[in-house]
Amino acid sequence: MIEIKHVSHTFKIGKKDNEQEIPVLTDVALHVHKGEVVAIVGKSGSGKSTLLQTIAGFLHADVGSIQINGQETMHFTEEQHAAFRLDNFGFVFQNFQLMPGLTAFENIELPLILQGVPSNERKQRVQKLMEQIGLTEVAKHYPNELSGGQQQRVSIGRSLITNPPIILADEPTGSLDSETEQEILALIKDLNEALGITFIIITHDDEVANVAHRRFRMHDGILKEEA
Ligand SMILES: Nc1ncnc2c1ncn2[C@@H]1O[C@H](COP(=O)(O)OP(=O)(O)OP(=O)(O)O)[C@@H](O)[C@H]1O
């Protein structure tokens, strides 16, 4: 499903005559099977988010190969990446990144509008998904009227509505208390088991990493699988 080989990336900062190089990914390899939950743990600044951005095509790594569903994405144009992302990935972030002026329902509906799905079909799909993930009661609420856990459910709903095979989650429970964290982890587990969705989860937290089938550790840009 995801096959990453020999991916390296160095950020260059400062002016040309005084350029500083920050190596962030070094010869990274990662193979994720369909239906797996994989956790990437590691200290702040170790390169976890950079790897996720590289997989999603928000950032172009200097070298290496990234194959997703059999397609090499390293040399995609921006347009190709954008189209590929919409079909293949859902994103979940620590700070939810919901649109404050849209209701829970409208936030989840948004990716379908971007995909050009007709209004009737959109409403049906959003309603069905909101029932599945326990959000019907808050459909008309705005993000600032929701608890952290509810906001993260909405953001998971938004990531799922286009039926992507892969969800990339960057610290999905990072802003939640431990009880709400457990709820969200249970939801991730259910979605993986019921729908076979593949998850790559970045986390600092061992509790979160425990839901994963396999765990990798990033240390100074080097990724290693842990036993
Ligand atoms: N756009 C950028 N330009 C220059 N350096 C960057 C850029 N983005 C990240 N870095 C640097 O790359 C390194 C890795 O950052 P990254 O965000 O991938 O780490 P992380 O493991 O995800 O950390 P955190 O858990 O704090 O998000 C850090 O030293 C960071 O300062």
- Beta-strand proportion: 25-35%
Radius of gyration: 18 Å
Q: Helix- and strand-based class?
A: alpha/beta
Number of DSSP E strands: 10
What fold name goes in the CATH topology slot? Answer: Rossmann fold
Instruction: Give, in spatial order, the strands making up the sheet with the most strands.
Output: 6-7-8-3-9-10
Walkthrough of the structure:
The structure is a single chain. This protein starts with a strand and ends with a strand. A hairpin with a 2-residue loop joins strand 4 and strand 5. The protein is globular. It has a single domain, classed as P-loop containing nucleotide triphosphate hydrolases (Rossmann fold), CATH 3.40.50. The chain has a six-stranded mixed β-sheet with strand order 6-7-8-3-9-10. It has a four-stranded antiparallel β-sheet with strand order 2-1-4-5, covered by helices on one side. The protein is α/β, with parallel strands linked by helices and 227 residues long. It is built from seven helices and ten strands. Helix 3 packs parallel to helix 5 and helix 5 runs parallel beside helix 6. Adenosine-5'-triphosphate (ATP) binds next to strand 1, strand 2 and helix 1. GO terms for molecular function: ATP binding; ATP hydrolysis activity; transmembrane transporter activity. It comes from Lysinibacillus alkalisoli. InterPro entries: AAA+_ATPase (IPR003593), ABC_transporter-like_ATP-bd (IPR003439), ABC_transporter-like_CS (IPR017871), ABC_transpr_LolD-like (IPR015854), MacB-like_ATP-bd (IPR017911), P-loop_NTPase (IPR027417). This is ABC transporter ATP-binding protein YtrE. Belongs to the ABC transporter superfamily.
